[in-house]
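User: Sequence in, structure out. Go.
Assistant: Echoing your sequence, followed by the structure tokens.
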Amino acid sequence: MFDEQGTPTFRNDRETDWFLGVAVTYDLEDEEELFNTCSELLGLLNKRPLKNAKIHKERANGIAQLIANLPIQIVVSSLNLSNSDLQRVITLYEELGSLLRKRHRHVRGRPIAQILHSHILDECIFKSITNYMDINQISSKFSIYIDDWSIPTNDMEIYLNGRSGSINNKMNSLYKRYGSDFRIDISPISLLKEDSLRKRFIDEITSSVSRSFLKSENERYSEVPINSILANEINQYEEITDKEIEFVNFFMNINLKNPPVNYVAG
């Protein structure tokens, strides 16, 4: 499951300078026991879901300490929105994407928020699956659920079905190239639109993790969540700002020279 936190904008009035992607991976057979274990602290059975701003710091710390010891894998990726190079290349990328999408697909461009969301989503999905496969070394089927996000209608098929199919093919090609016997099967991505135990589970974990990325003067700021989660070596955190800048620059250079007919920016 995947969720994002923060407002992917370069405006100065944002609450935090970080845009986060948080992915949680676990075996489906463990789901019922996981939810039972977390039910009270995460409010999974409450009449209404717990809202991020109303979860006090101590509870957020407790959530992180609990989930760090559960049979789940957590991947956290972050982008530094205050990075001037990131702002520059993403703004150019937005402009280029708008031109190419209009020319080759006759659709409107995508705003920066949707661009950054798609990139951090790809990063988290790829890392989660590769980490799981590295640890377990068996052929596996993956179902991906992401918290509801405003996806352009013209991109819905690509965003959900095309993305999972692309990752599936690339990873299986890599395994085959290196002589691995195991394979993966990734289902089309599903949106968690309605309130559910899964939606609450990923929401509360992401809320806890996000406390470590608020501005230090914020009363909800705490370093405990990310430190607790990373105390379990199966979990990973990476700031991907430089990687994003490098990828976008490369992508723009390639597509300025030879944009594909069915071009989709991002």
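User: And one key feature?
Assistant: Confidence is low (pLDDT under 50) at residues 261-266.
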